[in-house]
Design brief:
alpha+beta, SH3 type barrels, 2 domains, 13 strands
């Protein structure tokens, strides 16, 4: 019995946070963005049992089988400069790793900027989106987190079974989603507070300890549509990934698609 999950469904509250709970919705990020634009309080949570059009980075679909994962979006208005907002994604990834570590003993790594991996297979992801930027007002940020908690291997499409996993599938035991959700929200709040206090350097050091790309060969599909292959040098002090291509040129990656190549 997952008492925490049942309680948030019944009460619409989770440790002082308002929770908008859906048996099914298109995308928790879309709902959270609408709520944020309508004035929802910072810390408002949107949780769903399943999403029909859940998405990850670059518009990719996020598989959301009913009752198997955490599909969460959180309304934030961090006191950060516009140039610092990309750091929220790194903070969210670190928070998700720490919540999983705390509750399961598993140790996910992070594929820059937003994928959680267990032994190279994706177990979770982060999607950060921002609202309109208005002078003098904190920017609305929606932090979405998807984690495969109980998903059995057979629930993944065949083409994903070698590249995706779940906490239960990897750890060999069942985990309570409610406990993980509580830990996740606590860790997100802690990491965002660190950003607001100007402690990004320390946060980034902890992120780097979980870096799944450092020293790995990868292919980067640039926003212009070209492919760059090279070795990941890790994120710089601003959190931007650097890649050294085969000709020795260093590329600064702000966006685009990354694929880890075989060792």
């Amino acid at each position: 019995m997952d008492a925490v999950w049942q309680r948030l469904r019944e009460t619409g509250r989770l440790d002082g946070h308002e929770v908008r709970f859906f048996e099914q919705t298109a995308s928790t990020n879309d709902v959270a963005m609408e709520l944020g634009r309508a004035g929802a309080a910072t810390g408002t949570l949107v949780v769903a049992e399943t999403q029909t059009t859940g998405r990850g980075r670059l518009g990719r679909a996020w598989l959301s089988p009913p009752g198997m994962g955490i599909y969460l979006s959180m309304v934030l208005r961090p006191r950060l400069a516009v140039t610092e907002l990309a750091r929220v994604t790194l903070a969210g990834g670190l928070a998700a790793c720490q919540a999983v570590e705390r509750l399961t003993g598993l140790a996910p790594a992070i594929k820059w900027p937003n994928d959680l991996l267990l032994d190279g297979r994706k177990v979770g992801g982060i999607l950060t989106e921002t609202g309109a930027i208005r002078p003098g007002e904190p920017v609305l940020v929606v932090l979405g987190v998807g984690i495969n908690v109980l998903t059995p291997p057979a629930a993944f499409p065949e083409e994903l079974r070698g590249r995706a996993t779940s906490l239960a599938g990897h750890g060999g035991r069942q985990y309570r989603r409610g406990d993980l959700l509580v830990a996740l929200v606590e860790e997100v709040e802690r990491q965002v507070a660190r950003l607001e206090r100007g402690e990004f350097a320390g946060l980034l050091d902890e992120w780097r300890q979980r870096d799944a790309t450092l020293g790995r060969r990868l292919a980067w599909l640039t926003p212009a549509g070209t492919v760059v292959e090279g070795v990941a040098l890790g994120p710089d002090d601003q959190g931007l990934l650097h890649i050294r291509d085969d000709g020795g040129r260093i590329h600064e990656v702000m966006s685009g698609d990354l694929d880890l190549l075989q060792r």
